[in-house]
Amino acid sequence: MSIGYLYYVYITYLNLCTTGQPVLNKVFSALIFSWTLPCVATAEAERVEQDDAEGKMSCCAEACDPAASQHRLVCFASKDGLLMQTVLSRERGGLVKHTGGCHCGAVRFEVWSAPHLHVFNCNCSICTKKQNRHFIVPKSQFTLLQGSDNITTYTFNTHVAKHTFCKTCGVQSFYTPRSNPDGFGVASHCLDPGTVSSVTVEDFCGQNWEESMQKHQTIRSMSKPTTDK
Q1: Which of 54, 81, 149, 161 could be stapled to 178 by a disulfide with Cβ–Cβ 3.0 to 4.6 Å?
Q2: Helix boundaries (H) for the chain
Q3: Residue 214 and residue 208: Cα distance in Å, rounded?
């Protein structure tokens, strides 16, 4: 039994305990006392959510071939589709889960990023007026938890950037930047306290946007998943 397997079982057990799932006894017994583990492929399509009508954890044991000679991994999925494997992978990659939102609480999100944030301070016409300071992440690392129906979007000029605001309080906690339309710009000052270790601010001359983009060496890569960099 490998150290990696023991660690995976431990983390899975803690997750089930914390969420208070009714399948805890069944699943944990299967993990600890059985050498034949339920398996899962890497795709989300392998998930079995027959007990997941209320977002409960589900085990893929029933989907496994009982005659299979090799069961490789245990995997659980919650209703939002975030696989435990993905969580562990991001943690091992040095990422942490930040949460945040607007002022009134109507818009809430979670984002996986480093605890040390690289924040851009742009001086273009709109960023100056809304005091936009943001860090960039790939879309796959951002999840809007609530408020999709309470967001209004403003665009201008090229209409590539999508400036999204809460309809109630007017706060922009995230948006789609022109520099990185395949990612999100997240306002560091809209994150909940407790997960940010440090913030490095870089001034970006949005008044000369095209020239600044040509000079900047890394900004476009910040919205690319790690495997694409």
Answers
A1: 161
A2: 3-19, 24-33, 84-92, 125-130, 209-215
A3: 10
Which pair of structure tokens corresponds to residue 223? 């919205």
**For the residues of 176-213, what is the DSSP string, one character each?**
B-SS-TTEEEEEGGGBPTTS--EEEEEEE-GGGHHHHH
Together in a domain, 66 and 136: no
pLDDT reported for residue 94: 86
Handedness of CA 82, 5, 196, 202 (dihedral sign): negative
Question: Structural domain of residue 32, as residue ranges?
Answer: 3-89
| Domain co-membership, 50 together with 118 | no
Residues 196 and 121 in one domain: yes
Report the C-alpha gap between 17 and 201 in whole angstroms: 39
What average pLDDT does range 170-186 have in this prediction?
A: 95
**Are 82 and 102 within one domain?**
no
175 and 72, same structural domain?
A: no
Per-residue pLDDT tens digits for 119-151: 999 999 999 999 999 999 999 999 999 999 999
Question: How many domains would you assign to the chain?
Answer: 2
Residue 36 has pLDDT above 90, yes or no: no
Domain boundary residue, one of 67, 89, 111: 89
Instruction: For the chain, give the mean pLDDT.
Output: 74
Contact 47, 81 (CB under 8 A): yes
Co-location of 125 and 194 in the same domain: yes
What is the spatial distance between Cα 199 and Cα 118, in angstroms, rounded to a whole number?
A: 6
